Hints:
Layout: E1 20-22, E2 26-27, E3 31-36, H1 42-55, E4 71-75, H2 80-94, E5 103-105, H3 116-129, E6 133-137, H4 150-167, E7 170-176, H5 194-198, E8 201-207, E9 211-217, E10 226-232, E11 238-242, H6 256-265, H7 272-279, H8 283-295, E12 299-302, E13 305-308
Parallel strand pairs: 3-7, 3-8, 4-5, 4-6, 6-7
Antiparallel strand pairs: 1-2, 8-9, 9-10, 10-11, 12-13
Helix pairs in contact: 1-2, 7-8
Amino acid sequence: MSTxxxxxxxxxxxxPVDTWLVDSLWTHQAVGLVAxxxxxxxxxxxxxxxxxxxxxxxxxxxxxxxxxxxxLLFPAEDSPTAxxxxxxxxxxxxxxDLAGLNVWVIESSILRLDSRxxxxxxxxxVEEFRPRxxxxxxxxxxxxxxxxxxxxxxxxxxxxxxxxxxxxAAVLVVHHARKxxxxxxxxxxxxxxxxxxxxxSSLYMRRNKGLELIVEHRGAPAPxxxxxxxxxxEPANTHLAIEGEAPASAAAPxxxxxxxxxxxxxxxPLSRDDIRxxxxxxxxxxxxxxxxxxxxxxxxxxxxxxxxxDTTTKSARSIPTLCWEAxx
Length: 328
């Protein structure tokens, strides 16, 4: 009989340099939930994540994306044209180009994660596109199993965990809450308690004198609850926003990208914390600019932090204006 694979703990590689995919909201390569009752904006928040991860712009104009990349999206309840229109509005608000948006929409009419054939097809698609983030919206449309059965729902969630581990992709699943309310929003989720137990990062949306967002992580501190509104700064620019607060990205010094490039030009690879401390800038501002520089191919991540790419030969003064800047 063969033995199970084992390895001495000291030989196991260190955790990634970055703890977060999205500062404070989504841990690195996490599987998790955007959950709440119907008509609260769960899909809007998922699409906000899609635009941010694809472009390196901050989620909700505030929370920096540290590792931008492609996004793969299956919207089970919305038509591709409706999804396109929503994404277009968020892109206009952010000042980014929809035509070049690295978000890929799965156009299958049905995707069942309790079907071996559909799981194989999704796995092959993830392998081909290698998304940084996979979004599935919502869970109830992704299976015909008994959602209250721990055994049946665990099979579906185990498949998603396997996708995350095999392809280093974060997985965001939109999920519904029960009609009954609870002071602990995790207890209000539809279905088996396995769903909450599976999630590394959970974003709960609920009505509490307005729209409230509550964050929960398995292995990281969570921010205080946030007040959200569905806003529109111009016609057809509908997007979720933090109520009554200016975007934190606006506080980033205008020359921060130049200072980061110059620092990396004269230093070994540095972690984001090292860069933040040396330049005396806020964590979120540093994260937003690092994400934009990475997206533009001027810097890259390695095992010990960030460094200039081999092709970065420009002086810091010639670096173009980057998409992290707050929209006017």
